[in-house]
Specification:
The protein has 390 residues and is α+β, with helices and mostly antiparallel strands. The protein is built from 10 helices and 18 strands.
């Protein structure tokens, strides 16, 4: 079966007022449009043409089409005009333990202070669809961070001191930055960074000024100073595994993640921050998160390999009426991002046309998908059968 999917954009404050509308070729709504969800996640399941949500469709018809009762992934369009919160996600084992602990404590799942809303991990992949997509990802090597902070002058002295010494660690520094006792020092560091100049770290200092306009005085601005600033070009991806701090800053991307809503925040947000729990899941290993570039698996089909079993992402391009036959490894969701395409299921013969911003669920009994036309789509599928995350 091929089942067209629709959903309304979510109007988170950080969303772009123009990027999704431009992709879809329509006038902007006048509101922030941050994310469009394509999947069966209970937080905002997609709708099918008969008025059902995709989770209801799977419950009613999934067995007959070989589809699972619940998809292992969630596909999104994400459009950021300002920074998302700095955050990390737990491993599967950490999520299971944290969820059980909060369930036993009787904390409502929709409570603001709730951290673990389900028992799943949330690795994620973002691929740039705009010409560039900017993000913070992972912790910078300590020597480079010392150079950056050392150039900020006396106002950053307390931070510089905590970064010195053989036993200095980014985790302990982050814990201090997010504590109440550091508020005066955090304000001084932000002021020093706003006033500083540097040839080596000019983009990072400009980011501090931008973030301080968006989140005045937020301690997450200092956390951001410890992180790697990454710019993806169109078609490049960034994979974020469990425990890695990250924050998306600007641009339009296709995001694919495990089906979870577990977030440990570390700044740039008015929402609840559980510092102790964040530090318990944090991977403080320094270094840049590698840019993920796809490999060709068939003519016109390029796969973004990621080391999780929940999902993989294919970028499929066809040109001037060409045809691409793509084998399916399970239930799939196709999302068009350029041109005009026609998709035909190999078993049902059902044909669906897609233009940018439109999506369709493909049940696994189709086995393969014929794609024709002139354009680009992203195809979410289950990942390789890899060992589960610890």
């Amino acid at each position: 079966m091929l089942v067209p999917l629709t959903n309304d954009p979510r109007d988170y404050a950080w969303g772009s007022a123009t990027l999704i509308a431009q992709l879809e070729g329509r006038e902007p709504s006048g509101r922030p449009e941050a994310e469009v969800w394509f999947g069966d996640h209970p937080g905002d399941p997609s709708e099918t043409p008969d008025g059902r949500t995709l989770d209801a469709w799977l419950a009613d018809e999934g067995r007959a089409t070989g589809s699972p009762a619940q998809l292992p992934y969630l596909l999104k369009l994400l459009a950021a005009a300002s920074a998302l919160s700095i955050q990390a996600h737990p491993s599967k084992r950490q999520a299971e333990a944290g969820f059980a602990r909060e369930e036993a404590a009787g904390i409502p799942r929709d409570a603001g202070e709730r951290t673990y809303r389900d028992d799943n991990h949330k690795p994620e992949l973002i691929v740039a669809v705009s010409d560039e997509f900017r993000a913070l990802a992972g912790l910078r090597d300590l020597p480079a961070t010392r150079r950056l902070v050392g150039g900020l002058g006396p106002g950053a002295g307390p931070l510089a001191e905590r970064l010195e010494g053989a036993d200095a660690s980014a985790a302990s520094v982050i814990g201090w930055v997010l504590s109440a006792e550091a508020s005066d020092d955090v304000a001084a560091v932000i002021a020093a960074a706003r006033a500083a100049s540097s040839d080596e770290f000019a983009p990072e200092l400009e980011l501090v000024r931008t973030l301080d306009e968006q989140f005045p005085g937020d301690p997450g601005i200092v956390v951001a100073l410890l992180m790697n600033l990454v710019t993806l070009r169109r078609g490049e991806g960034l994979f974020v595994p469990a425990g890695v701090l990250h924050a998306y800053l600007s641009g339009l991307g296709v995001e694919l993640m495990a089906a979870s809503d577990n977030v440990l925040r570390g700044g740039l947000t008015p929402k609840h921050i559980d510092v102790a729990e964040l530090l318990s899941v944090l991977d403080a290993t320094p270094g840049r998160q590698p840019v993920v570039r796809p490999r060709e698996v068939a003519p016109g089909v390029h796969r973004f390999d990621v080391p999780v079993a929940d999902f993989a992402l294919d970028r499929v391009t066809v040109a001037r009426g060409a045809v691409s036959d793509v084998r399916l490894s399970g239930p799939a969701i196709a999302l068009a991002t350029a041109g005009q395409l026609a998709l035909t299921g190999s078993r049902s013969g059902v044909r669906v046309s897609l233009v940018p911003g439109e999506a369709v669920f493909v049940s696994p009994d189709e086995a393969s998908l014929r794609i024709e036309g002139d354009g680009e789509l992203f195809l979410a599928v289950p990942g390789a059968d890899l060992a589960a995350e610890g």
